[in-house]
Design brief:
The protein is mostly beta strands and 646 residues long. The protein has two domains: 173 residues, no CATH class; 296 residues, no CATH class. It contains five helices and 45 strands. The strands form eleven sheets. Strands 7, 10, 13, 15, 17, 23, 25, 27, 31, 32, 36, 37 and 42 form a 13-stranded mixed beta sheet that branches. Strands 1, 2, 3, 4, 5, 6, 43 and 45 form an eight-stranded mixed beta sheet that branches. Strands 22-19-18-24-26-28-33 form a seven-stranded mixed beta sheet, with no helix packed on it. The termini are far apart. About 3% of the residues have low confidence.
């Protein structure tokens, strides 16, 4: 090494080597700088393209929200956006293709049912697709549109969206009042797990127990087009509205008709005066068809003592209609929607996606359960069974019925509080999204509600087998029926209300108000309404009443069932028959094991969170007042970009 350093040629060699090293280092550093610059530009351009891709997909959704239902293919107007800085100049062109498609699976896709072509589960479900393409070009302005300026960055995505429907809300009310127009309240026992919306004020009250210091608990977002009205006026906002609260929110149109189900569902039924009592068994249905016959006049003599017959006082003359029942042909129900023209009585265990609607009243004749979910479990792990129930009038929990096949009496929707682990209880289980659309105009009692049948029960005198002695001394056992009608004026009048107080028979039932009339011991407390689903209604229907209810004029003796006037309080006290005394056992009573001091049901309401990502077939869709159509986003998938949107 010393010899090299002392030699002139050696010094030159070292100098040359150092120069080469310096040159290579410089080139390496320059290469790194160029690479870093290109990487920055690439990442910047890629990230910017993704932002524009999302914005373009949202533009497609916004157009859908204003246009509503579309047919065919729609292309958004092509647009260009320039992005310029000291180090980067780019122009981004973008466009979307919007159309409706039928998906063959519901997995990880928000869907609303379309026209099912077969009975298989999960097939052919309708939603919108927004396909968006973003292309980047070097430069801005006109200079960016020469072919040589194309960038390598191109992004393509597909967004799945559906129009929002009312199954999104656990509670939806157009007017948050009773059918009489009076305030109804959420209070201490109410724990609401899903979204809530009202187009009017929402009343809350610190009362009734529960686990929130007497206040109701809302675990999800609450929106109201009005305001929260509280009793007392000050309420703990975060303690009550734990999922958030928005007042003066946009109002939603609540339709009068099940338009989508009418248009796309399978049509059944013959109209007014027809009843369809259907039982669903998995993916099929069967049932009975009832026809309300021609009204006929009936005459019944009123006696001063009955039974046995005493002196004749006058004759009651009134009209009755008999129901003629015949078997109804069944069929496949899974992956279909049905619109029944008439009244629908329904119950059963459902497989697949099924929606049932009717133009008349809907009576729930038993549980609405799911094949792949055991009662009383949460259906969260059930990907295939989804039920929608839609009435253009009201949805009502049936009290009881005479079976058209065996003529026996049944109380299908009662149970003990201990039938299932708390908070569930015996009564009725409803795994469904339910929508009661009825619009009664100025008569709020005709508005659509979710409610229960026979809210003011009173005992009535059953048929009695009694001995009759004839003038010749012979004795015969005779069945006396319609006893209450043989004892007093029917139909009642203001001068002769039902029942007449002087007979000592106050708080008897008006004939045929109870669907099982005459019934000596009607049920007051009936158990629990267990819901895994959603409820939308025009006004708030009652699910529980007090014995002396301020909604109707107790102790007046006035009967007008259509406007909730039902004679007398429903206190469970024994009524003495004027002939047979207490041996008939005329008394209102709680169903065994159903505790309480009123009439109706406890509530065990749970939102079915599956309804946030899947929805029932042809379920009524949400539109904001003013015509905008809210849409919900599903999957957004980034894919290999095509050259053009075909």
């Amino acid at each position: 090494m010393k010899r090299i350093l002392k030699s002139p040629s050696g010094n030159i060699a070292i100098a040359a080597l150092l120069a080469v090293i310096g040159l290579m280092s410089g080139l390496s550093i320059a290469g790194i700088a160029v690479h870093d610059a290109r990487s920055y530009q690439w990442e910047h351009e890629t990230l910017q393209s993704l932002h524009f891709l999302r914005a373009e997909a949202n533009r497609g959704q916004a157009i859908l929200e204003y246009k509503g239902d579309i047919s065919g293919i729609f292309y958004t107007p092509k647009r260009s956006v320039a992005v310029e800085s000291s180090t980067l100049k780019r122009s981004y062109s973008m466009q979307s293709k919007v159309y409706k498609e039928m998906a063959e699976t519901t997995e990880n896709v928000i869907v609303q049912g379309g026209a099912a072509q077969t009975g298989s589960v999960g097939e052919q479900r309708e939603h919108y697709k927004v396909q968006s393409l973003v292309e980047s070009k070097r430069g801005v302005g006109q200079a960016a549109y020469y072919g040589a300026n194309d960038s390598m960055i191109r992004k393509y995505g597909e967004l799945t969206i559906v129009q929002t429907n009312f199954s999104e809300f656990m509670y939806f009310t157009d007017q948050d009042v009773s059918p009489a127009g009076n305030n109804v309240y959420f209070y201490g026992y109410d724990v609401i797990t899903g979204k809530v919306h009202s187009n009017s004020d929402i009343q809350i009250k610190q009362a009734g127990g529960g686990n929130n210091n007497g206040w109701p608990t809302f675990l999800n977002l609450v929106t109201t087009a009005g305001h929260i009205v509280s009793t007392p006026s000050n309420y703990p906002l975060n303690q009550v509205f734990q999922g958030g609260l928005v007042e003066e929110y946009d109002g939603y149109d609540f339709p009068e008709l099940a338009n989508t189900l009418r248009r796309k569902g399978r049509q059944l039924g013959e109209g007014v005066d027809h009843i369809y009592f259907l039982t669903i068994d998995g993916n099929a249905f069967s049932g009975m068809h009832g026809y309300l016959g021609t009204p006929r006049r009936v005459s019944k003599i009123v006696y001063d003592e009955y039974p046995p017959p005493g002196d004749s006082l006058y004759t009651n003359v009134f009209t009755v209609r008999d129901t003629l029942w015949t078997p109804y042909p069944g069929g496949i129900s899974a992956a279909q929607g049905f619109m029944v023209n008439g009244d629908l009585w329904i119950r059963g265990k459902f497989s697949g996606y099924q929606t049932w609607g009717c133009t008349g009243e809907m009576l729930l004749m038993g549980d609405i359960s799911l094949t792949r979910t055991d009662i009383p479990l949460n259906p969260k792990d059930n990907p295939t069974d989804v039920v929608g129930l839609v009435s253009e009038h009201s949805i009502t929990i049936n009290y009881g019925y005479r079976d058209p096949q065996d003529s026996l009496r049944y109380h299908p929707n009662v149970g003990s509080d201990n039938d299932y682990p708390d908070p569930a209880g015996g009564g009725i289980f409803l795994y469904a999204a339910m929508c009661a659309l009825g619009d009664g105009g100025s008569n709020m009692f005709k508005h659509g509600v979710f409610t229960f049948e026979y809210q003011h029960p009173h005992p009535s005198t059953p048929a009695v087998l009694a001995s009759v002695e004839y003038p010749d001394g012979t004795v015969e056992q005779v069945l006396f029926d319609w006893i209450d009608i043989h004892r007093r004026k029917y139909p009642p009048t203001g001068q002769m209300p039902w029942p007449t107080p002087q007979l000592g028979q106050q708080r008897l039932d008006l004939p045929w108000y109870n669907p099982l009339w005459p019934e000596a011991r009607p049920y007051l407390e009936r158990g629990t309404i267990n819901i895994w689903g959603a409820v939308a209604q025009r006004v708030r229907g009652f699910v529980h009443r007090s014995h002396n209810d301020g909604e109707y004029p107790s102790n007046s003796g006035v009967w007008d069932i259509e406007i909730d006037k039902c004679g007398y309080p429903t206190d469970p006290q024994q009524i003495q028959d004027p002939v047979f005394g207490g041996q008939l056992g005329l008394v209102g009573m709680n169903y065994p094991g159903a505790a309480g001091s009123g009439v109706g049901y406890k509530k065990n309401y749970n939102y079915d969170n599956r309804l946030l990502t899947i929805s029932p077939l042809f379920y009524p869709e949400v539109r904001l007042k003013g015509g905008k159509n809210p849409m919900t986003q599903g999957n957004w998938n980034i894919k290999r970009p095509p050259r053009i949107l075909s």
